Amino acid sequence: MFDPYYLQQLAIGLSLGMTYALMAIGFTLIFGVLNVVNFAHGEIYTLGAFAGLVLISATAPPIVAVILGALAIGALAGFSLERIAFKPFRRFTDEASLKSRAMRESTLLSSLAVSIVVREALEIVFGSQMRSVPFDYLINTPVRVGPVILVTGDFIIFGVAAAMLIGLQYLLTRTRVGLAIRAVSNNPLGAKYVGIDTDRTIITTFVVGSMMGAAAGILMGLYYGAVFPAMGFTPGIKAFVAMVMGGLSSIPGAVICALILGISESMATTFVSSGWSDMVAYGFLILTLIFFPNGLFGARRERV
Amino acid sequence: MKFRLLTLTTLAAAGIAGSAFAADTVKLGYQLPLTGDTAQYGQDFRKAAEIALTEFNAAGKPFKVEIVFEDSRSDAKEGTNIARKFVDDKEIVGVLGDFTSGVSMAAAQVYKEAGMPQLSQTASHPDYTKVSKYQFRNIATQAQEGPYNAKWMAAKGFKNVAVIAEQTDWGQSVVSGFSDAVKANGGTVAFSEFFNRGLKDYRSLISKLERAKPDAIYTGFFYEDGAQFLKQLQQLGIKTPVYSTSAAYSPKLIELAGGAAEGVHLTSNFLPTDPSPNVQHFVDEWKKRSDGAVPGQFPAQAYDAVRIMLAAVEKASPNPTREKVRDALAQTKDFPGVTGKTSFSADREAEKELVKVEVKGGAFVPVAD
């Protein structure tokens, strides 16, 4: 008989992987697919969680309204982020600037600056301690599935992540907007020459990706029951690792690698001390980069 | 950004704002995390220090005291830089802080060379006071708390225990202080492991821990990690009793964990419900500055640490020097603080009385056994 302990660890790993995937989807859309270096996604996630929390404590609305509120804040945050940290670097439209790697890489610092300002501002307004979410809103009621115990949130997160993944795949491969996004990412100058409104395409991608980030933030807040300014950092790193392992531009690849990360962390806990389980996940990243420099699911292509 | 001088003085009220550096002002340094992941602790310490300082300066003493707060971000490198800065300021006669044992010990190396007395409200690693004769602390060490809790759990009949703690200097002292005492009492430690501070998901660790089938779990964590751990323990339907150290004693633990905190046992040296006038005075002052929130144990220790330092400065005056303040600190005996009477032993350890506490009905309740 198979030890139910391993089944439980596998279930925990999958649920952990799902939480990473939830964050990785929006992150990969902006960073990977659109090919724009963006390090402020973690703060979008935090903003989504705080928006939800403020809404809950102010008016105690139904949970769907909380998520819609977080989505609205996410869209607004994504739009503003693009305006503040990315648009100024596109103001030169001559060929040299459009081809310049330095111009595109400079958003690494501008987005990082925005993320620091947002985090510190949240700390000033809300304080840096963990804030609790009212218990009625939490999505962590235990559910027993055979020998394994999960919580309601695991199923909600699975549903949301699957919907995001399928929706985005449809958007990217079957619609003109998706085609435009891929064209801009592939060759911004060429896209411009064939008449694509690159500005609008980039803004749309930021808004969609940031709405997903904000939704991930509020869901994680409700899942773990704690919201605090630094909460976006660790998921941001995990999402980054999943994206790189998955080959940067592949959203299904990022999701699968997020699941691999989650499972390897929970399984590693069985064999090594919990303090070392992160190392197993990052070890996978290093192995991937050595043996599959383009990631497990990536196509060969020039990157920023 | 690096050296943010955050708050300087609260003595303007006395009307000598113009002569802040006159001979009748004594300066102290306080290094603590005011930003970063542990900022909530540092912010609380500053609040507690300001209460103590305002009281001292309003009491009509022959001199005023000023505290320079510097933000260490709980970063050892930053802590050492602040220590050099404090040492270079000839007017500073004593230093409070830092928050974590790691940063306190790093800064202690600088204070040791310069002969600057250092009093930490929270550094509980056994090696901290061993750095030099200038290091004092106002907290029970894990060398005191571990055996105390081991005895408590043995008396409850828990022979086979699991112990987990965060992966820090402090966490290691929790595990070693407790495990040694359990073995000395004839018990067994079935499981012992460290986790990374700030871990979100404890379910893998909990499943692994439960495989060892312990009678009880002893934990070395702060309230953030503690709340997540307790909630996930409840989610997995595990009923094994949990014991913890005074570090988890904070109202935030119950706020964050809710019903999952019920039945947790821990030790403390501060009870906000203590009816004695000085405790109630501190709790009232704290509530006034924190929207009615009740202080946990750490702010109480900071409040006492600042008052112990102020008493030492007063004893060393007129013209206190670093050496005189150190000697005055070392002579502290039965200081009546909100965390009980504090005396420093010959090796500069605070001898604290510990109280047993259990979470019952959403509150910390003192228990006899």
Automatic annotation (TrEMBL), chain A:
One of its GO terms (biological process) is D-alanine transmembrane transport. Pfam families: BPD_transp_2. Coiled coil: none annotated. CDD domains: TM_PBP1_LivH_like (cd06582). It is found in: Cell membrane. It comes from the Bacteria. It is a multi-pass membrane protein. The chain crosses the membrane at residues 12-37, 66-86, 107-128, 148-172, 202-227, 239-261, 281-299. One of its GO terms (molecular function) is L-phenylalanine transmembrane transporter activity. Belongs to the binding-protein-dependent transport system permease family. LivHM subfamily. This is Branched-chain amino acid ABC transporter permease. The lineage of its organism: Bacteria, Pseudomonadati, Pseudomonadota, Alphaproteobacteria, Rhodospirillales.
